Amino acid sequence: HADETTLQVLKEAGRTAQSKSYMWVFATGETSRAPIRIFRYNAGRNGKVAADFLGDYKGYLHTDGYSGYGKVEGISRCACWSHVRRYFVDALPKDSKNPESTLPKIGIAYCNKLFDIESDLKALSPEDRKTKRLELELPVLEAFWSWVEDTLPKVLSKSKIGKALQYALNHKDWLMTYLKDGNCAISNNLAENSIRPFTVGRKNWLFSASPAGADASAVVFSIVETAKANGLNPHKYLEYLLREIPSMEIVKNKEELDSLLPWDPTIQAACAVRN
């Protein structure tokens, strides 16, 4: 999973203080046994950032519709059905009784049906989930695409419903990718939820003073969000790290770092969130 959001960095060489920079997040999939969230600051939004980070990775990449991810080679794109639903929600008129609300409501209903089925399949193994998706969701998808292709010529292309239908059709292949593997997700909510604490915090701190500060923020958010993804209390985990690291010979023996990873049994025992 990958996502990115804007960040203002005041003292970037060769750029004005008002320039937009970006914080990126890369996350392992929902079925990963060792969930990881890595944040990376970069001055730009060029897809090369994702390509450089992912390197030789081969597999599925969940994203929104941003074209920059097309620069990542060797991956199969999984587009986000939450984004599709959002387009239909945005197309709803303020007056729900307005006849123009009918088409957006139909689009939303299709999306809701898919998400309802996904909720029922959550506990299944990836193999069984794939089988059930083909059985239960593929007919819904086929009906949805038939409706999209039939409806699109009948609406104004620049209207909100026209844009919603066109967005879905433009990303049809990527929106169908998740059917190929039960480990894939129907949305990119995982990445969006991972980066949301940063976007909320940004409303308070507004900017980073320097690239070094932005990099430091990326490190902290990587640690905290990975801890949360592994069921840890981030405050306890940070306390544990700050207490243990000074007495460790990490420079001489980097393998010692393995004992500090969030999924280590000792870490889990000491820092896990207790219900």
UniProtKB/TrEMBL annotation:
Domain Transposase IS66 C-terminal: 222-263
Domain called Transposase IS66 central: residue spans: 1-215
NCBIfam families referenced in this protein's UniProt entry, alphabetically: transpos_IS66
Name of the protein described by the UniProt record: IS66 C-terminal element
